[in-house]
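Human:
Take a look at this sequence-structure pair and walk me through the tokens.
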Amino acid sequence: MTKTGSLPSFPMERGCPLDPPPGYTEARQQPGLQRVKLWNGNTGWLATRHDDVRSILSDPRFSAMPSKPGYPFVSEALGSLLLYEKPTFVSMDGQEHSRYRRMLAPMFAIKRIEALRPRIQQIVDETIDHLLKKGPPLDFFEEFALVIPSLAISELLGVPYEDHKFFQDVARARMDLSAGPEVPLKAGEQMAEYLDKLLRKKESSDDPGQDLLGRLIVDHIRPGRLDRDDAIAIGRLLLVAGHETTANVIAMGTLLLLEHPDQLAATRKDDAMVNRAVEEILRYMTVPHFNSLRVAIEDVNIRGQVIKAGEGVLAMVSGANRDPAVFEEPDKFNIFRDASHHVTFADGIHQCLGQPLARLELQIVFKTLFDRIPTLKVAEPMEKLTFKHDQRAYGVYSLPVTW
């Protein structure tokens, strides 16, 4: 890719912590895509329109494979992770991607996830019981937002929750864009060793269980359709993605609702508004703010502009979710709108496989939390909160609350 010092740098800085960078709006106002300069001096194309992002993510001429020349890494740490670890299906194209996705899709089917509703409700209720017993003030992120998805993904995968401190620490190291390139790789090795031991223990049992890792053993590893290294990579991916992202949505969604008491009141009066609130939180915050990186594998024309083979594209779902051509007054948080056509979970064949589980957790959390603790409030002003600008999943490092 060409090198230049005259282009806007990427990642771009935010103005308000609740909004994407203002540069996304400026890019959207240009007739085509905007060329930006990456951390290593290479360039890529920035897409922030809803239609453009969806088109790029659903076009097989754009590859999700980091090994392809020209792939636009947003940091050295992420580059080392994507290049030197065994790839998973999220970094594959075509038939290879589809083969792995077909293995996992039945385990994330809506009917199967819906069957988890009673257990997720129990997890939420018990965690709130813990909050009430402990009493305020406390860190809502650590004591609640992180606990719910950690428990849920642990049970779904078949990972002992008592090990949650270990995999939460490892996940944080893997999500840090500012770390040295060796940090996420070391964290990945630690998690791989952990999952390898867990898989071997399950394999030695006549009944590995009905959890996801158990089903992979019975349905795919033992018949020879999946090797252990691939299973470890899949487990690592799901364990990190299954709790870190949703935890940030829970924390940021709670902050948003507390900042908009009239809309919070509407969710408490009408259960149907909870689902709308979840979709609007997903749209407005777009926690996975650096997902959906692609590289063109042949020349592609977008709005009269040719993206050449080997050029990287940064399809910013957080920019697409603030497109005024699709969402009226997009910079206003409004749970009364229909935000279900957001692209927070991406688009095309790489749409997030775990979105039914994430939605279920969020719906239960935001229905239950404010009914159980109606006087919940943030204990610090917004300007004192520290946000995760340097992480792959956006959010708040801690959220002090009281009631």
Observations:
- The chain has 16 helices and ten strands.
